[in-house]
């Protein structure tokens, strides 16, 4: 396998070797080994252990008050389908009893628009879960309300993608004209005054001329990379994180397709490199400039290495996506029928979750369905596959030190 570098938040194999997560891996690998042996010998398959995913992406709503040209979830936005709050809570309780450790509140949709958003964050923290929020920042008042519940290890990240009010408005088309980049960033200091113990990030999806969502052209923002870093630092964010624009294929998968650019790719990459290098000069002990793993592999030219997946995607068991439209096996296939395990509150009855998960572990051939996806979990899936194929006993003691980062 090619050598793979991952930033620490994307080094999922290492995270899984922490003492808090390792026993789960041992149980899962033992089950996969046993069922493959049973299949070879024509014996009855062993039952799946009483597990649920370790980590979930939870889309609280499909509603959004922005209309971003680059929105990867455009086809499922504002679908008016809602969670039943009680059923969702029951599902989360069951999942926690079965091993759930972390929840990322994210979209298709803007999580802070969920009517019970602060109460849901409080509930998740009462369950003892790590909580992260990815938001468009339009409801700073709601983010302020959840700040008291967050703890070290939790985080909020705002998807802002610009350094000026003008480019912000032209990229995101907020429903309210008063929702400017200045206004959104002004909330950071207010929120940190309440609680500064969690990480607060500024996310920047890099777009270039030729990027498109279907027939909608996406404007370029490379020229704002450095300006955004300066703004993020001045506003009090702990970091800015850059990642490349993804597109959805006709089949619904999120893919990196730099070949679509209208101009020469090396020229675009050189401009991105120079802009991020300039942004890096703004780093301080309290402000970091991060490049996503996707961006690193795009720059390094080896992004296609991450598109060759094993047949079985083991991450389907360890990390799932729960939305009002159903439960899905992966963020890269959010809202796609062939990746749907069942309804949104699938895990309220633990066995239904197990049945849905086992069906996709067998029926979803990742080597085919994900052959165009630059999969962040590629190295982790191959590592888990090798553990399953090996007959060597797994050590009871966790191989890695605890970092208490349980997001997958
Ligand atoms: S804020 Fe997020 S969910 Fe809403 S339109 Fe923009 S990218 Fe899509
Ligand atoms: S192989 Fe990667 S992209 Fe495909 S379902 Fe698994 S984690 Fe998602």
Give a description of the structure.
The chain is of the alpha/beta class. It has a single domain, classed as TIM Barrel, CATH 3.20.20. 36% of the residues lie in helices and 14% in strands. It contains 14 helices and 14 strands. The protein has helices spanning 12-16, 22-40, 85-97, 117-126, 140-146, 165-172, 181-194, 225-235, 265-280, 293-300, 315-318, 350-363, 366-369, 378-389; strands at 55-59, 102-106, 130-135, 155-159, 199-206, 212-213, 216-217, 239-244, 247-248, 254-255, 288-291, 319-323, 326-328, 340-342. The protein has a ten-stranded mixed sheet. Strand 12 and strand 13 form a beta hairpin. Helix 4 packs parallel to helix 5 (140-146), helix 5 (140-146) runs parallel beside helix 7 (181-194) and helix 8 (225-235) packs parallel to helix 9 (265-280). The radius of gyration is 21 Å and the shape is globular. It binds iron/sulfur cluster (2 copies). The site of one iron/sulfur cluster (SF4) has 12 residues, from loops.
What topology does this entry show?
Elements: H1 12-16, H2 22-40, E1 55-59, H3 85-97, E2 102-106, H4 117-126, E3 130-135, H5 140-146, E4 155-159, H6 165-172, H7 181-194, E5 199-206, E6 212-213, E7 216-217, H8 225-235, E8 239-244, E9 247-248, E10 254-255, H9 265-280, E11 288-291, H10 293-300, H11 315-318, E12 319-323, E13 326-328, E14 340-342, H12 350-363, H13 366-369, H14 378-389
Parallel strand pairs: 1-2, 1-12, 2-3, 3-4, 4-5, 5-8, 8-11
Antiparallel strand pairs: 6-7, 9-10, 12-13, 13-14
Bound molecules: iron/sulfur cluster (2 copies).
């Amino acid at each position: 396998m090619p050598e793979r570098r991952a930033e620490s938040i994307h080094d999922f194999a290492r995270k899984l070797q922490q003492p808090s997560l390792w026993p789960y891996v041992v149980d899962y690998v033992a089950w996969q080994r046993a069922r493959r042996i049973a299949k070879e010998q024509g014996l009855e398959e062993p039952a799946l252990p009483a597990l649920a995913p370790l980590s979930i992406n939870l889309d609280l709503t499909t509603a959004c008050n922005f209309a971003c040209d680059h929105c990867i979830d455009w086809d499922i936005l504002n679908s008016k389908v809602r969670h039943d709050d009680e059923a969702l809570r029951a599902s989360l309780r069951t999942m926690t009893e079965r091993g759930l450790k972390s929840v990322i509140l994210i979209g298709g949709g803007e999580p802070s628009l969920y009517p019970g958003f602060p109460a849901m964050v409080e509930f998740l923290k009462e369950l003892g879960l790590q909580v992260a929020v990815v938001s468009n920042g339009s409801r700073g008042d709601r983010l302020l309300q959840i700040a008291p519940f967050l703890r070290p290890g939790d985080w909020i990240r705002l998807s802002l993608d610009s350094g000026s009010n003008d480019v912000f408005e032209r990229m995101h088309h907020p429903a309210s004209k008063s929702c400017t980049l200045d206004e959104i960033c002004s909330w950071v200091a207010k929120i940190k005054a309440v609680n500064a113990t969690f990480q607060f990030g500024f996310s920047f999806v890099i777009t270039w001329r030729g990027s498109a969502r279907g027939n909608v052209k996406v404007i370029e923002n490379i020229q704002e990379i450095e300006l955004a870093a300066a703004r993020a630092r001045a506003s009090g964010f702990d970091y800015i994180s850059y990642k490349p624009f993804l597109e959805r294929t006709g089949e619904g998968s999120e893919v990196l397709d730099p070949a679509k650019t209208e101009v020469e790719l090396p020229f675009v990459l050189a401009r991105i490199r120079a802009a991020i290098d300039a942004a890096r000069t703004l780093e301080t002990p309290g402000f970091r400039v991060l490049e996503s793993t996707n961006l690193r592999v795009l720059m390094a030219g080896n992004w296609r290495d991450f598109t060759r997946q094993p047949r079985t995607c083991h991450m389907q068991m360890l990390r799932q996506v729960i939305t009002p439209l159903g439960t899905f096996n992966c963020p890269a296939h959010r809202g796609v029928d062939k990746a749907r395990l069942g309804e949104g509150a699938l895990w309220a009855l633990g066995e239904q979750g197990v049945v849905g998960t086992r069906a996709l572990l067998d029926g979803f051939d990742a080597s085919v369905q994900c052959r165009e996806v630059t999969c962040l979990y590629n190295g982790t899936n191959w590592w888990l596959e090798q553990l399953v194929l090996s007959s060597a006993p797994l050590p009871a003691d966790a191989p890695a030190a605890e970092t208490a980062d349980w997001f997958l």
